[in-house]
Write the structure tokens for this entry.
Amino acid sequence: LLVTTLEPTVSEGMQHLNSCYAQWFDWRHGYEGHVFERRFWSALIETDSHLSQAGRYILLNPVRAGLCATAMDWKWSSYRKTMGMTTKGPEVSTMLLHEFGRRVQKARENFAAFIREAE
């Protein structure tokens, strides 16, 4: 998850998300205990290069985990919406996409190539 905040409240937000989601998930599936394997971790992104690399890392996690063949195949990510392939789902921030070009279509092409380069 890549988020931008005005205030340094990511830890508070993640604590709330994790506790609410975990309670719902446990109730829905009849489970008890932790839903997430590891603790929440965050890092401040201070350069355009770091932003691009973080975006690619997130989009390629399901590929590297063997859950799909390409970033485009993972229906729960923002990749397909960002590429203009669907109107459903989340979209990568224009802040990230603008790192790849000023015009939307060219930015999409460059971003797609950047992702494919590491698949």
In short: The chain is about 50% helix and 0% strand.
